[in-house]
Amino acid sequence: MADREAQVTLRTRKFLRNALLARKQMVVDILHPNRANVSKDELRGKLSDLYKTNKNQVSVFGLRTQYGGYKSTGFALIYDSVEALKKFEPHYRLVRIGEAKKIEKPSRQQRKQRKNRSKEFRGTAKTKGPSKDKKK
User: Fold this and answer.
1) For residue 62, which of 75, 76, 102, 115 is within the disulfide window of CB 3.0 to 4.6 Å?
2) Within 13 Å and on the Cβ side, how many CA atoms surround 118?
3) 17 phi and psi, to 5 degrees?
4) DSSP for residue 53
5) Closest-CA residue to 77 (of 101, 103, 102, 97)
6) Which of 95, 88, 15 is nearest to 50 (CA)?
7) 40, 64 in Cβ contact below 8 A?
8) What does the pLDDT profile of the chain (136 residues) look like in tens digits?
C-alpha cells in the first residue's frame, strides 16, 4: 500500500484565496499511473499535508478521470476553520466527509403517494382510513 501512495502526484492550478468565504479554492490535477483512481479521502489527506491544515477543513469534489486513465482533475476547497466549512459547504458534501448526519426521510414516491392519498379526504370529515360510503 505504501508504494501505491507514493505514485500519486498532486498539482494545483487556478489557486484563489477567497476571503469572503474563508477558504482557498483550486483546481487539482492528480497523476496516478498504474492506478485506476484515487479516493477523495486520500486526496483530502494529501492536500492537508501540502497546505499544512487539518484534514477536516478540506473538501474535494468534481473529480473526473481522463480517458485512458493516468490523470484526474477535480476541485478542492481548503477552509480556514471547521466552523467556516460547516457554515459555507452544502449539506450533502458535509455528509460525504462525515461532518453532518444525513436527514432520513421517506422516498420521493412515498411522499407523493401520501400527498395524493390525503387529497381524497379534502372537504370531508377526517376518518381513520379510506372508507367511502357507497349509496345503494
Assistant:
1) 75
2) 6
3) -95, 110
4) -
5) 97
6) 15
7) no
8) 555 555 899 999 999 999 999 999 999 999 999 888 999 999 999 999 999 999 999 999 999 999 988 999 999 999 999 999 999 999 999 999 998 999 999 999 999 999 998 888 777 666 666 665 666 5
